[in-house]
């Protein structure tokens, strides 16, 4: 049996509804652990619940998953490691920590790679996304699909950011990720890598001024209590990978694999739709709670991207020019 998720299986899986009785005989009773770092109320948590529900339905109730949201099983890095070791069955994670395992995942950290969700979908659901999911098998993981964390925006307690120079001097928390660190340093910020659970307190105490995340994360973590300004920079887009332990994947029947892949793809469509509908509500809610929200002019975004081009060029060499060209071709295909 192949250790990769075959493309034909993924395609067949999309149209799969419920398995026949004979196929269900190939499904074992299982109770699995699914851990991730966001709150259950977040669109990612809702997507995770949908995935669990679909797997339950398609397996005739034989496969149950217990979810552990809000870092109950550890940070993203810890839960990825536990899933590699087969201690945890399934992990949901942003792609930034995966770049430490599979260097090509750093493509998602490129500043201003995508202008909108349509471009992002074309890349994560196209050849680039499939290549990246398949690459996880070299690291004792099996990639199932990508949910959406969304476009990242900067919040801070000092001033609105309307041009690149406004970032200079801000102490900004970023993920432990070389592309993010270098991008913010290039703009003159003091980039501070910090585990997520420490961020709220650091913002509250003034140890840092700023952080960057999609709207959903800003909202469920109540960052409006410790941050005054949101600047809609959309400087990066974060996919969220749903990944299984390869040890578990290797032991599954073809029927069971089909259940997981098809359920992930159905849940992905539900989750992205939900996430995008929530964004507009969240913006209105954060405004009502006193946050000042400003957009960046398109020409200013172009100017910042030009400033960051040396970072993009440097990491294109790491990620591989072919993969970057493939992503650019997928982006061009939706225009």
Automatic annotation (TrEMBL):
Gene3D superfamilies associated with the record: Bacterial extracellular solute-binding protein, family 7 (3.40.190.170)
Signal in keyword set: yes
Keywords for the protein's UniProt record, in alphabetical order: Signal, Transport
Pfam families: DctP (PF03480)
Signal peptide interval: 1-25
InterPro entries on file: DctP_fam, TRAP_DctP, TRAP_DctP_sf
Record-linked PANTHER family: C4-DICARBOXYLATE-BINDING PROTEIN DCTB, PTHR33376
UniProt record similarity statement: Belongs to the bacterial solute-binding protein 7 family.
Protein name (record): TRAP transporter substrate-binding protein
Biological source species: Terrihabitans rhizophilus
Lineage of origin: Bacteria, Pseudomonadati, Pseudomonadota, Alphaproteobacteria, Hyphomicrobiales
